[in-house]
Amino acid sequence: MGDIRFPGLGIHLKDVPEGFSLFGLEVKLYGFMIAIGFILAYIVLTREAKRTGQDDEIYVDFMLWMIIPAILGARIYYIIFSLDSYIEPGKGFWQTFLDMINIRQGGLAIYGGIIAGVIVGIIFCKKKKVSIKLMADTAVMPLLIGQIVGRFGNFFNREAFGDYTDSVFRMCLPVSYFNGNGSLSGLAESGIINENMLNNPVSFDGSVWISVHPTFLYEALWNLALLIIIFVYRKHKKFDGELGLLYVWGYGLGRVWIEALRSDSLMVPGLNMKVSQLVAAVCVLVASVLIVKKRFDYVKDMSK
Prior knowledge:
304 residues; mainly alpha; three-stranded antiparallel sheet; two-stranded antiparallel sheet; 11 helices
């Protein structure tokens, strides 16, 4: 059964697909949504560049530089903190390698993509002799749009959900779906589907469902709110780089909260700590310090 329910909201989505066929080729909606996110991000990026009097061709070049490293960064970050699920006794090198490069079923960590994008951006700006701060301000709205759209790839993959909840926003997934694709035992072993979910089942039409936080949706809505704030504020920024810092602060703050709800978080090896929650907390702290310092410098300069 491929249905997905949001019973607290009165929503029942029937036969939600994971992909579709195009000229005989199976296209996963996870990858399709990421591609749509990149396209929309590119459109907004070039328009924002024109609005601020920049050469939009610079950003075309930057997107070409950034796309592959960002995907690689997101995948490598994910693999580093989930090595146990790839390196298994008895599995050969070639199969391990194929599993590592297979992103059709998910497995991209946004912070890895952002880190790779920042590294590429620094190199690009030095080579092209453009302002990294101004580029960061220009890129944050497209980045948020890409993240919002991309998160719905998690929806189609039935992943990036949280622990059990009976809240009005709960998302219900049939256990038979995971049994049907052979993933229930693996997800239960990894703790993604945990005892708390299985011990609090819900029933629809005689079948057993788990009831979880739709954390992919929480993050998409949080990012939408952050996007609106930045869109409204962008004409009133006080210094180049402020919008970039506002994104780092705002996204990090939301991620600290949302990551606490997730059951599939990547963990710091040897520590009972969620790596993305730790990275997000550090980002919030650093961005807070820099925003306060830059604001103080701005006020001091204005008073001269």
